[in-house]
Amino acid sequence: MFRKVLIANRGEIAVRIIRACRELGVRSVAVYSTADASSAHVELADEAVRIGPAAARRSYLNIPNVIAAALKTGAEAIHPGYGFLSEDPYFAEICAENGITFIGPPPGVMESAGDKATTRRLMADAGLPLLPGTTEPVASLDDALAATGRIGYPVVVKAVAGGGGRGIAVARSPEALRTAYRQTRAGAQAVFGDSRVYLERYLESARHIEFQLLADGFGNAVHLGERDCSVQRRHQKLIEEGPSSALDEQTRTQMGEAALRGTKSLGYCGAGTMEFLLDDDGRYWFMEMNARIQVEHPVTEAITGVDLVAEQICIAAGCRLQLGQADVQLRGHAVEVRINAEDPDRGFAPTPGTLTEFRTPGGPGVRVDSHCVPGADVSPHYDSMIAKLIVWASDRRAALDRARRALGETTVVGPGIRTTIPFHQRVLDHPAFRSGEVRTDFLPRHLGM
Amino acid sequence: MFRKVLIANRGEIAVRIIRACRELGVRSVAVYSTADASSAHVELADEAVRIGPAAARRSYLNIPNVIAAALKTGAEAIHPGYGFLSEDPYFAEICAENGITFIGPPPGVMESAGDKATTRRLMADAGLPLLPGTTEPVASLDDALAATGRIGYPVVVKAVAGGGGRGIAVARSPEALRTAYRQTRAGAQAVFGDSRVYLERYLESARHIEFQLLADGFGNAVHLGERDCSVQRRHQKLIEEGPSSALDEQTRTQMGEAALRGTKSLGYCGAGTMEFLLDDDGRYWFMEMNARIQVEHPVTEAITGVDLVAEQICIAAGCRLQLGQADVQLRGHAVEVRINAEDPDRGFAPTPGTLTEFRTPGGPGVRVDSHCVPGADVSPHYDSMIAKLIVWASDRRAALDRARRALGETTVVGPGIRTTIPFHQRVLDHPAFRSGEVRTDFLPRHLGM
Amino acid sequence: MRDSETTVDVAGVHQLSSALRAVVESLPGPVRQVTVRAGECSIDVSWDAPAAVTAPPPPGPVLAAPWEESPGEPDDGTLTVRSPLVGTFYRGPSPEESAFVEVGDVVEPGQQIALVEAMKLFTPITMDTRGRITAVHVADGDMVEYDQPLIDYVPVEG
Amino acid sequence: MRDSETTVDVAGVHQLSSALRAVVESLPGPVRQVTVRAGECSIDVSWDAPAAVTAPPPPGPVLAAPWEESPGEPDDGTLTVRSPLVGTFYRGPSPEESAFVEVGDVVEPGQQIALVEAMKLFTPITMDTRGRITAVHVADGDMVEYDQPLIDYVPVEG
Question: Which GO terms of the molecular function aspect are on file (chains C, D) (predicted)?
Answer without folding.
Answer: acetyl-CoA carboxylase activity
